[in-house]
Amino acid sequence: MKSKLLLTVLLLFTSFAFSQSFDVNGTVLDGAGLSLPGVNVKVKNSSKSTTTDFDGSFKLSGVSTGTTIVLSYIGYRTQEVVVSGPKITVKMSDDTKSLEEVVVIGYGSQKKREVTGAVSVVDSKTLDILKPARIEQALQGTMSGVNVTTQSGAPGAPLDIRIRGIATNGENRPTTIIDGYVGDLGLLNPNDIETITVLKDAQAAIYGTIGANGIILVTTKMGKKNTKTKVSLNSYTGFQYTSRKLPMLNATEYALLLNESYANGGKALPYPNVSGLGNGTDWQDEVFKDGVPIISNDLTISGGGEKIAYSISGSHLDQEGIVGGDKSGFLRNTARLGLTADLSDKFKLKTNVIYTYFTRNTLNENGLGSVLFNALNVPATLTPYDANGDFTLVPNTTGLGNEIINPLAQIANTYNDYNYKKLNGNFGLDYKIFKGFVLSSSIGFNTSNSESKTFGKQISYGGKVFDVQRSSVTQGAVNDNNYSFDLFGTYNTKIADNHNIVGTLGTTIFKEWGNGLFATGFDVPNNSWDFADISLTKGISETLTNSSYVYDQRRLSYFGRVQYDYKGKYLLSAMLRRDSSTKFGPGNKVGYFPSFTGGWVISDEGFFGESKAISFLKLRASYGTLGNDQIPNYGYLGLLTGEATYVFDGALVNGIATGQVPNPDLKWEEARKFDVGLDMKFLNDKLFVVADYFIDTRNDLLIPNIPVSGITGTGAPGASAPTLNAGSVRNSGFEFSIDYKEKFSDSFSMSVGYNVTFLKNEVLEVNNGTGFIEGGNFGVGQPAPSRMEVGKPLGYFYGYKTDGIFQNQAEVDAHPSQLALGANAAPGDLRYVDSNGDGVIDTKDKANIGDPIPDATMGFNVQLNYKNLDFALYTFASVGNDMVRNYERTLSDANRLDYVLDRWTGQGTSNSTPRVTTGATANTVFSDYYVEDASYFRIQNIQLGYTLSPNISQKAGITKLRIYTGVNNLYTFTKYKGFDPGASNGAPIGGGIDYGFYPIPRTYLLGLNINF
């Protein structure tokens, strides 16, 4: 009896010992051994769960031995761990199977494997490496189908984004949606961004009339629930240098060449004695500054509790210009608050508010008479300062014209200021009505105010066009506002386990309004910037000195989308959006924009088998119609917005006149987009390939200010030609991207990416009565060099073809006369091609001599990680884009690039560069002599970083400490002679004409990342 009782007691104690529960304390690390916060930790087959805190630590109470814990985190493999004791450490592995990642697609999201449209994504890791001052820079070379061009390298200068080519002579910029509302990509702090998603095809039709140029979806960083407060500090200091100088003639070379030019023209030599001139003044060295600072600081505080998550950030960027220093400086401050809160089991609140303030100063650039234009054209024989220490005056002679001035004096006498304040954000509320159905509402808003001031100092440059006879100050104030209200429901359901359906139905209201006021005052006290304010001016002008405007625009939209998949293998999506806009007349306000996408995951088919080489294969296609209404307001109406002067009783009286000629038949610009693509994964998911073929046909192009025959009076101040639906353009091409990721060991990993886009652009129709539209400028008084014409690329260069240099008089006599171009030809002059074969060289011989649109763009990127070291290299290339060399003034006494040293000086000496002479020639008319291949390869970014071992940094309470050094815009390989082969003035007709682009600086960076 006693033995049985003892056995029973022992069994009870043994059972208790095995079933005893305890607290498990764990730590989760990433592949590099660093703490990983925000990891979801869940007891398998139980509701018990938690998340790792900032230190990567977690605690689970009441866990028994043998329990399985599941750990999951985006970007890492889901892992299961069996509990064997009260303490565990888990090292997460990178998830190369990224097909389960969620991609934002507009009014919803999809798993990457289910996406049926052409979508590209840039994440925060890439932004951390590139360190762009403006977000747009991060899109160049990182994704296929997206091309970013600079209008200027000056601090704060805007950039142009083109998705799959240039489709219209109107507005080409894609629309940016920030957390659900329309926003401005260029004003965001790069460190606030989690992902940037670009919708390139018909999938953007869910946005209807604002989607034709593509959609950029920005998701900002938010805090994570159940995490300790995390403080992140990112700071860098940089020093900027000019990335390029042009090889100009020094003083001796200039004098010798000028003597030759005057001698060839039968004139006396301007420099009878060139000895002692030496190198003279290098005006580029005088204008460009070295070691110009750029400073950036960014602080983010984030975290969350059981039901609330938050992210608070602030940033400061201060950048001076490599030309003019603070006279072309840029300063930007931002503050942001992001908050999500579970108000109940059914209600979820999300808000994101951003405040931006920036100031910018600018110089005259990218045009005739700009600072760099003058630096290139002022002779090296002149000194910056005269004997009295004053700025040297450039002689006002025929050989130097009346617009070339001392660039240092121009910088010193440039005074302007611009400041901008913007508050934008959104407030959203999700209501879970019942299982599978969520009703979402969101209010987005933008409100901004800007003030500008420009002071014209009374000054004389020696009789030049820049002389100011009377001092003045012009001030402006602009107020812009918009808001949007979105209300949509999303329903998810599954039928018979295999059929998955997601339906979205909603409406959007958008309103945009604002006003501007500008005024000019004369006779500024003391002729000084310190007193440059209209309130202090007393001068009176006989001309109109004040102007203003007001606008109000609205859209009402309805949209719907149905997504269906069968076993995740057959994927279908259909979208329809109805937009009505106040930009169009009563008969054309409403537009309908349908689209369809589909996909087939071939690798899920039984016949595909267990392929070891190909682990994933998806075929997808899309077709749809999108719209564009980005034109000036009230284009269909006649408004009194012009200036006019009338004579009443013998006196001049200022009045108003009609502005833009109205066009009541204005309607939507329509884009029909077709895309077929393949997504593939190879080598155990290490190699990811995406390929797309696309056709984008844009009809009823909305083109402002089209000259139309029979309409007069458009030359009056404030008046302009009408906006018309005047053409059709097609972009077609092929995109290909390949990414390879390999983890060789716990210490060494590598990631390599390459993307390329081939593009063909063709104008299909021009409906303005003349069959072509002109644009751009070349030289002084010459016809427009760019055209939009059927059968040609949009904005192609229209001029004369050349066929070398006349070597002797016999060749001149045997060639058709070139007198119609302005002068008889002589040996040493350019020989123009008789394109139409009529025996005369005249305007009828003009032809296509170049195309500013590249045939192909590509990016190649490498990232390496070895233990605590990391290395990154980002590059970009553009092939086949031409550019017009228009920064050289064709005046006889202007300085020249040193390629003229290889000029023609006699028979057989040159067949590419004509002779120099002060006599009359036709060498300066617009021809392919001035058009160059501007293809280039650019090393955009190199960065090397070191992360301190967490064993050391965590002793100081620092979770992560990383220092890095890098170079932005290291080097550009190109044959183009100008400053920047990748720059453009942004105009579809007239782009690619180089007036002396401000070069992008080369920047050396030293930075620090600290997480607490």
TrEMBL record:
Residues 1-19 form the signal peptide. It comes from the Bacteria. One of its GO terms (cellular component) is cell outer membrane. Residues 111-215 form the TonB-dependent receptor plug domain. Its main location: membrane. Gene3D superfamilies: Carboxypeptidase-like, regulatory domain (2.60.40.1120), TonB-dependent receptor, beta-barrel domain (2.40.170.20), TonB-dependent receptor, plug domain (2.170.130.10). Residues 379-866 form the TonB-dependent receptor-like beta-barrel domain. One of its GO terms (molecular function) is siderophore uptake transmembrane transporter activity. NCBIfam families: OMP_RagA_SusC (TIGR04056), SusC_RagA_signa (TIGR04057). Belongs to the TonB-dependent receptor family. This is TonB-linked outer membrane protein, SusC/RagA family. The lineage of its organism: Bacteria, Pseudomonadati, Bacteroidota, Flavobacteriia, Flavobacteriales.
